[in-house]
Amino acid sequence: MRASALDPAQFDDIRPYRDNEVRQVLDRLIADPEMSHALAHFLVPKLARLEGPVAWLVRQFLRFEFRKARDVRGVQEVVDKYVDRIVERTTTRFTISGLDALPRDRACLFVSNHRDIAMDPALSIVAMFKEGHETARIAIGDNLLTKQFATDIMKLNKSFTVKRKAGSRREKLQSAIQLSNYIYHSIVNDNEHVWIAQRSGRAKDGLDRTNPALVAMFAMTKDKETPFADYWRKLHIVPLSISYEWDPCDDQKARQLYFAEHKDEEYQKAEHEDLDSIAKGMTGQKGHVHTAFGTPIEGDFHDVASLAEEMDRQIIGNYVLHPTNLIAYQAVYGEVPDLPVGYPARPWNPAEHEETRKQFEARMAGIDERWRDRAIQAYANPVVSRLAYE
User: For residues 92 and 287, is the Cβ–Cβ distance under 8 A?
Assistant: First the structure.
């Protein structure tokens, strides 16, 4: 099927909700007892006996907050208010770069590094929302959509589904083609931005690398006559870098890496571990957070590997290094390279960051010694990546 002949009906099982569906979905979501009880558990996890009354209050609160929402924009205006509060309470600074160079006359495909399940796309969208840009459709794995209320919440916020749980090889291929078609259709036909992570899953080790298979998936919609370089230019790919001074999930990620490497030790996944990870990422202290929008990729990239390499070059090059990254690098390698930190960038001066060093050492000391080295390495690896590209 030619890209220009795509039938929008083929995306009905993965697309976000449309404006005319919003009110009905909101009413269903607010009335869903499972959703209100899950949110009550999130709000008061140590007071399980009060979960029922809190769930009732949650429903009343949501009914009031979303009473005027009639379309996707209305939903995002309410959500933006609460993301603002998260930023205010959990960051010392939230800075943005590159938006001034972002084209306003066409949709873009944002390929982002991935450190936090919810906050990465949320902070990107908030940055665009505040600067008057249209927000993006967000790719999210179906492994996070195990409940109807979770699906409703995400699809109300312009999320579309990536089918990671596809079974057979044929099903996986069909899902990849559908996803490729939808991304192309969103950008070229609907003129809607798209956000997608550079690889499946978070970079738990702090190494941001684009999976070439992702780029190959983008090309599945291309017809035989269109050269690769011309096809990439239709997608208006913009690499995106998000950096956190402190990772609220550093302990959890290092623990998962440890058990992945030590298969002889049993790993018991907690009942609410996915929810806990999202909650920690949202509510945990992050310090300085920076979102850097790269330059639209317009060059003549004739294959998947060279395009993935250009994405990595921009993502790593635009990544803002924090004092925690250089402190960790010194802890691992014994020296500090001559690299700038912060935004705007300034030369590294260890005397300015003694308090941060003490905080970092105390934080790492609180992590189980079995996987402490992995946590420290994860903070150091953005420096390792920068040096490799420098």
Answer: yes
Are 36 and 56 in contact, with CB atoms under 8 Å apart? Answer: yes
Summarised one tens digit per residue, pLDDT across range 170-205 is 999 999 999 999 999 999 999 999 999 999 889 999
Structure-derived torsion over alpha carbons of residues 239, 304, 205, 360, reported in degrees to the nearest 10: -30
Distance, in Å, from the CA atom of 281 to the CA atom of 119, rounded to the nearest integer, reads 7
Q: Do 174 and 262 sit in the same domain of this protein? A: yes
3-state class of 54 per DSSP? helix
Please indicate, yes or no, if residue 335 is contained in any of the structural domains.
no
- Residue 18: DSSP 8-state: P
Q: Are residues 122 and 180 in the same domain?
A: yes
| Residues 42 and 85 occupy one common structural domain | no
Q: What's the pLDDT tens digit per position in 66-106?
A: 999 999 999 999 988 889 999 999 999 999 999 988 888 89
Q: Are residues 57 and 87 in the same domain?
A: no
Residue with tokens 């390279």: 337
Q: Which CATH number does the domain housing residue 210 bear?
A: 3.40.1130
3-state secondary structure of 6: coil
Measured between alpha carbons, how far is 349 from 323 in angstroms, rounded to an integer? 9
Quote the CA–CA distance of 297 and 238 in Å, as a whole number. 6
- Domain match, 235 and 131 both: yes
| Whole-prediction pTM | 0.93
Domain count, the chain: 2
Query: Is 361 inside any structural domain?
Result: no
Contact assessment for residue 182 and residue 3, using Cβ atoms and an 8 Å cutoff: no
Closest of 13, 34, 125, 16 to residue 80, by C-alpha: 125
